[in-house]
Structure formats: structure tokens, C-alpha cells
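User: what does the whole thing look like in 3D?
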Amino acid sequence: MAPTRTRRVRLAVASGAAMAVLAPIAWFWQDSLLPDAYSAMEHGYADTGGGHAVHSGHGRDVTTLTADPGRPADVSVRLTARRERFRLASGRAVDGYTLNGTSPGPTIRATVGQLVEVRLANDNVADGVTLHWHGVDVPNAADGVAGVTQDAVAAGREHTYRFVADRAGTFWYHSHQVSHEQVAKGLFGALLVDPAPSAAADVDVVALTHLYPGARTIGGREGDVPVEAAPGARARVRIVNTDNGPTQAWVAGAEFRVVAIDGADVNAPTPVRDLAVPVTSGGRADLAVTMPADGAPVRIHIGGPTGIVLGQRTHTITPLPRPAATLDPLGYGSPAPLGFDPTAATRRFRYDIGRRPGFLDGRPGYWWTVNGHAYPDLPMFTVAEGDVVRMRISNHSGEVHPMHLHGHHFVVLARDGKPATGSPWWVDSLNVADGEEYDVAFVADNPGIWMDHCHNLPHAAEGLVVHLTYVNVTTPFRIGGTAANEPE
Amino acid sequence: MRMFYRILAYILAAEVVVQAGAMALAIAGLGTWVDDGGVFDSAVMQSDELAFPEVVGFIVHGINGSIVVPVIALVFSFFARVPGGVKWAAAVFGLVLVQVTLGFIGHGIPFAGGLHGMNALALFAAALHAARRARVTTSADTAAPASVAAPV
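Assistant: Here's the predicted 3D structure for the full assembly of 640 residues, as C-alpha cells:
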């Protein structure tokens, strides 16, 4: 009798203990499951940053936030996306994605103020495609985020993007549907916007740096890429980092200036040498050099294995190890008016990136958090048109995050409490290293629903994505659903 | 139950062996690749690219490190009636939590990565010890803990 009861009690205690361990795990697991289709507007919680969230009910649909539909296009481009096996410029065969048969896709060139119209056709990409105009503050309907501003363009379908190239500079475009896969395998290209009165350099080179499967490249070429440049010529090298990790650029054979960052001119850039220039994932840096009069070549090192070698008679130059010192844009160039007063902020947000164990859509792991919350329970930064917005971005997650805000450029005011002293440092992609804290500001002047996410695209696919939304803007599109929208 | 407990404990010990081997393989492969002219930087590290064949070691380490065996072992320990079984299963579980945490902290603070390597040996020893405690099968196993049954 007694042994039976002892056994029962023991079994009950063991079962209770097992439940105590398993029940919370099961609850967290089921709580993390995502529905088959959901709106970017539905999940998470509104963070109004101390301002009002006045939803009057008269919503503006994102599809109405367009460039002037009556204005004819100045630059028309048709791009056809294909999944195929193709050859890089280096001759290497790659299984990936092309636009008009090549990767990188064609460089699109416009002059500031022109209306650019791009018709994207999807030939055979089963997952669907979109195009996002990275760094161009386009109208929201042209932002190209599947499930937020449009449905993914299915195979056999087309979609037209229209936007005014609002500022001169170096930009790029890439798919924002299953982007962690499609960008890595080639669905991207460069977009250059020239200033109105052409102050063009003698030599103007686009350096899209990309790691294809098996190949480190610049514009599809491997190793050193030779470029013709006469002695005394002024050259501009536009570095675009299309990979998931930050890279560095440095120059052998001449001093150089960083004349633009993320499509925004640096004010009064001074000549420097023996400094490495950081270019974060998704970011751009335009380097200007004047070729030595004696005809010696100049090498722009980009990352470890690739570079541009400018020269005429010879392109042979001894590689230079990466300089130990790094150019810090916080103090580079000279101050200039911002065009708005960041101290008169009407909204203040914090964007604190962390990491913790848990479940993401049922998968156990160590996932990213924003302000202590994990995807999809993330803040929705809510603003009204005309707000001056301050944001403090900090990172305690153990890894670097290149943070990219769609539709806006923001200016860096301070890093780790140290105020900016150089040229206004306008960015759309900001390298936030572990332990760093940035104070940034911008004017909410482009209504819509905008992603504000990590441009290490696998990190975005792991949930490091929040949205900046304007009051009264709504979207009819859904993540998942029949269009199988999967922006990351 | 006792048999399951024992097998799970041995599996955990074996996983530590696999984890150590996978890292050593990957790091050796990385060294060879760099010697052959490969460049390892953030672009490579943050990609899904198999830059060299031994990268598979890093991948195995990552997948294997997130397997949930310790939770199952802990639950089995409640039923297994192994002397000190719950205590040692809990110890293994705790060491795994410490191990995973140190592994991730090591991405930002390399010193934590060093502790991650040392804690692996503590975890290995604890898992083996737990497995061996479950080996005792005397007729008195319900009444006498293993320590009492041990020769004096």
C-alpha cells in the first residue's frame, strides 16, 4: 500500500516538475508563431515618441503616395529579372539572378530633378521580385518593399516605379523580396544621379563591391580592376557596399578626399592619406583623387581582395596594408547649416538593439530585440508630417548592425555622447558597432510606411526590422498571403 | 527511463566532442584558405557563402549548439530515479545555458569565447558523470543511493 502511494506521489511530483519545465517553453513557442498573412501595421505597438498619434480615420493609402502621375518620364528604363546561370564580367559562371541578363544590373544614370521611370518585368523568378531604390528618398509607393508598399511581382508580371531623383549622388537598387537570398545572388545595380551643372570628374568609376558565390568582385570583376586615368586627371570612385558586412577602403599612391557619403556631399572635405574609410553594408562613399603628375598609378583598395587601379602607362602598384587608423566622419570636413533645428525635436525615439534566447515563428534561437521586444512585438515609430525627429540608436547585441532607414536621410549629431564637429554627416545606412550609441535627427517630410532595419539582410530576416509610419497612412498589402510577400 | 537518461547524457558528452572537433576543423580550414590567398573579412563572415569546405565546421557548431537535448534530459531525470539524477541533469542544463550565453557574448567580447572553450570541458565532465551515475543497477536501487551502495 505504502510503496504504491510513494510511487504515485513520486510520479505526480515528477510530472509536475516536467510540466513546470515544458509548459513555459510550449507557451513561448506557440506565442511566437506568425500568422500566414499579416499587415506591417498590425503587429507590435505604436511608439509615438512623445508626440500625438492622431488617426482621424481618413487614411491615405500608400499606393496614392506617388510622383506626379501626369509628368512624363525623363529617364525610362526597362529591367527584366531572371533566375539563371550567367557569367560575371570576370568570366566566372554563377547560379543566381540577373537584370537584363547581367549582374550587376545596368547602371541607371539620371540628372538631379529628372523623373525616373523603371518598368520591372519578372521573367521567371518563382519567389517574385521587387526593386528598392536604396538611399533615394522616393515617394512611398515606389519604395519596393514587398508586403508593405507593393505585392511581390510574380513571374510573368510587371511593375512600374516612378520617382524624382531628388539629390545628386551615388545610390543603388536591389530586390526587397526574399532579399537575403536575391541580393546575395545578384539582383542589384547602381543608380547615379548627376548634379545639374555637370562638375564631372575626368574619370568617374562605379565600384559595386559584391561577394557572389565563389567570387569577390567589383562590378562583376575579380581582383584588381584597371581603369584608364591620365596624369593629373581628377578621378571619382564611387564605392557601393552591397554585401552584408561592413568593408573598408584605402588608397595607395595619392592623397584622397571623401567627397560624398550615402549620396550626400561632404562639406569642405580635406585631403587625407593613410586612413581607412569605413563603408557599411548598403552604404556608399565617393573617394576623389588627383592622379600624380609623374604618371604613377593609384590603387583604391576595397576590402581585402579587390580594388580599382587608376593609371595610364602602368597599373602595377605594390599593395598597401590596411592603415591602422580609420577616417571618422564625425569630425571630417567643415560644419554647415543642417536646414532644420534638431533641438526643436517634436518626437524622440530610442532604437536599442539587443539579443536574447527565445523563439521566432516557432524556431528556437538567440534572436535580436528592439527596446527589449522581439519580432513581431516591435515598436512602430509613429510620426506626423513636418515633425523634427530625434532618435538614439544603441547596440548591446554583441554584433555590428548597419542600420538603414528607407525614404529619409538622417544626420548624425553625436556618437557615444561626443558631438559631431565636421561636415553634416547625412546617412541612410549607419554602421552601429556593438557598444555604440548614436544620436541622429531628421525631418519627417516623406509620408508613408518606411522600413528601418538592419542591412545585414540575414539579420533582417531574423526579425531586426521596425517601421517608421506616418499617422493616417495605411497599406493594403500584407506580408505572406497570396502574393507570398517576404520582404527580407 | 534510466536507460534513456543514460543515453541522453552520453549524447550530450558526445556533442561536446563534435563541437570541439567542428571548430578545430573550421579554423584549420580557414588557415589553409588564407594561406592560399583567400581573404576573410566581414563580407565573407556575414554571407552564407561556403568560402572553403571546412566552413561546414562553423555551420555544424552553430546548428549543434542550438539542439534542445538538455531540456529533454532534464525532463527524463524527473522520472528516471537515478541517484542524484535531477541534480546532475540540472547541472548539465545550467552549464549548457552558461555555454550558449558565453558563445554569443564571445561575438562581442573575445575573452568570453575563451571561457566558452573552458566551460565546454566542465560540461563534458558533468555529462559523463551523469551518465555513469545512471549505470548502477542493483536490486536495492530504489532504496539505496549509489553512494551508500559503494564499497567501503
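In plain terms: Residues 2-136 of chain B form one domain. DSSP finds seven helices and no strands in chain B.
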